[in-house]
Amino acid sequence: MNPRVHRLPDDILARLASGGGGAEAARQLVAAERSKHRLLVLGVVRLAGSHPAVGRAYDLLAEVEKHAPRAVESVIAHPAVGAWASHVIRSRETADFSGSVQLGALAAVAAIRACRPVRVEVPAPDGRIMLPSLGEIVIPGKADLVDLHLHADGTVEVGGRRVNVHDDEGQFWRPLRRIGVGGFSLWVDDLDPFRWSPDNVPDDRLSTAELDIWREYLQVSWQVLKARHWTLADETAEIVSVLTPITGPEYRMNSATARDRFGAIGMSTPHEWRWLAYTFAHEVQHAKLGAVLDILELLEPDDGGYYAPWRPDPRPLAGLLQGVYAHVGVAGFWRRERAHDTDQQAHVEFAHWRQAAYEATGTLLDSGRLTAPGERFVTAMRSTLADWMAESVPRTALAAADERAAAHREAWLARNT
């Protein structure tokens, strides 16, 4: 369970700073984030102190890792595990470590994947046992802790019931579901209580009809990414492992990432394949930068509020940096889409977002709050955008983009001055 030190080689950091990175850069970021999850899990164990159930769960996890390290790696890397561990550690301010017993469920998943017959204690609030990255067992009643008896064939005995975690959904077993195409598949996590902020998740699981929509649009968007946006496709395949349904505004779509849920993208049900492809372009950038910031300090602290050409409110520099990096990815997506657009939407989007991101890099460079690595990082982004600013765009599309930018700034000034 020992994490390791991670540093980004100069060439990898330079590729990331230019807005891309590719598969190798993505793999290095993934490795760093998995070490971060290990540190968080170790932090939970240390905070729990002498709690016997936590100690036994950790011993089991360590024992499984000796014989099946990938089984442990897969569950620790699950995005909701990072959110759970972060939550428990933040709870130290109230000395509430009750959530630490969820470590037993992590150990159970690792043992199941390693085909090891063992017994382990897990929490069952509200009569449900969440096995991160696998699914949920429903039992009669509720209990702080219950005994799981795991068998080598994947069956689990608990509360007088026996379920097989490899089965489809049944009365007492609700598995996470997968969607995918061409060797690329993702978990759809609509069960784990730590999958996203409770205020932003739907009340129920995705219906079969909605899941079919997600599956259909993923198939089309992934084919497009592989054909037209291969660097983005490579990064997405390395980084993204989970899609989490979240609520969206009426008649619109919503997407997000979170630093403590690396590998997950939260999104509302897509209405078209291109929005889903664009969402990967946007959110993978956020995930990459979040991982970079876990390794490197790019900014000094600030409490300022700056204009961001994509937000209605003033943003601190940390938020502005995230937005710039995301919109470098957005501009790059529309830049390639221009060759396949039947109208001028891609030209308008490219012109608008290259200008917005270029303007915001100037704000960052003029702030005086960038560290030396941050200065190099933002300068490299600006260099990419400067090259794109020199590319030709149809006059009507450029005029539409300029009009859109002017309207945003006018509305922002009216709201915030």
UniProtKB/TrEMBL annotation:
It comes from the Bacteria. InterPro entries: AKG_HExxH. This is HEXXH motif domain-containing protein.
